[in-house]
Amino acid sequence: MSSTVYERVSTILVENFGVEADKISADATFEDLDLDSLDLVEFSLAAEEELGVRIEDEEAEALGTLGDAVKLLEDKGATPGEG
Amino acid sequence: MLLADKRLVITGVLNEQSIAFSVARLAQEAGAQVVLTGFGRGLRITERIARRLPDPPPVLELDVTEPAHHRALAADLEERWGAVDGVVHAVAFAPETALGGDFLDTSWDDVATALRVSTYSFAELSATLTPLLRAAGGGSVVGLDFDATRAWPAYDWMGVAKAGLEATARYVARDLGPQGTRVNLVAAGPLRTVAAKGIEGFADIERSWGEQAPLGWDVTDAEPVARTVCALLSDWLPATTGMVVHADGGAHAIGAPTPPAS
Ligand SMILES: NC(=O)c1ccc[n+]([C@@H]2O[C@H](COP(=O)([O-])OP(=O)(O)OC[C@H]3O[C@@H](n4cnc5c(N)ncnc54)[C@H](O)[C@@H]3O)[C@@H](O)[C@H]2O)c1
Q1: Per the structure, how many domains does chain A have?
Q2: Up-side HSE of residue B47: CA atoms within 13 Å toward CB?
């Protein structure tokens, strides 16, 4: 189950932010992926639209790694997609 | 409705916390037609956010420092509406070195950037839209200010930019008054937006504001400021121009936090 939220988040990063797929891993920080604070704002919007879960600004700022983001989304009730 | 059929150009929507987002939402609820502008990489975010408004508006590109964008904006609005009833300037930027740091150790280049984006752009945007405002019979230009009559912790060169903005608004009011255009600023209390969170030390201002403001203050609620902007965009302050209207819970009127009477 967790891998699916992870996959959907990875897809957002590749498709919307041009992150190279091989750079993506659970311990990658947003800095490693070259996402700055403006990108994080957009990432939380995209995640909200794709996964139906809202990330508050404060939470987005506190995110260290991609794994943290996936965990936060899951804790908030994001479920694997239909597709 | 307060803004029935008003054609409004609203800059500065970045996310739902943006003051301009609340303005756009309330304006649409009050009957206005809205066009948003977005800037640089934030344009994509503005486009996403526009879909969350009651009636998703078009988003046009405007980096206020790009003369070509000003021309394209005027051309688009000319074709779309032929006139503009209201303009909201909610744009500000200063490099990190010009904020929350060492005021006396900021380079002119960084100060110049702050003034270019946060001060001069108000006159430039007003000039861009002057013919369209005239076509609407005058219209209203509203900018967002942070009380620049005093020095603040951390606000630094942005405070200087806002002092310049206050003066700029008076001159634009002087020059556009004869065509019936009203030009005013709303001095907002501190709100937790992307712009504000970029200012290290701004939290110190936030903390004391609620104690100082007779009406209290909620740093997470932009609606009181947005309502004030909408009031200035409406026809109900017809003899007001060149003003700074405070939407700050009243903090500007009080010298120091006053403990509740026992
Ligand atoms: N948040 C506060 O505490 C507070 C208090 C008083 C006044 N203000 C003023 O309110 C206005 C809106 O800011 P906000 O707090 O809603 O934050 P915000 O970060 O949501 O908005 C700032 C906007 O400025 C835009 N911008 C920056 N550079 C630009 C450029 N070159 N061209 C076009 N747009 C550009 C950004 O895209 C963004 O939309 C600003 O003028 C700000 O100084 C804010």
Answers
A1: 1
A2: 10
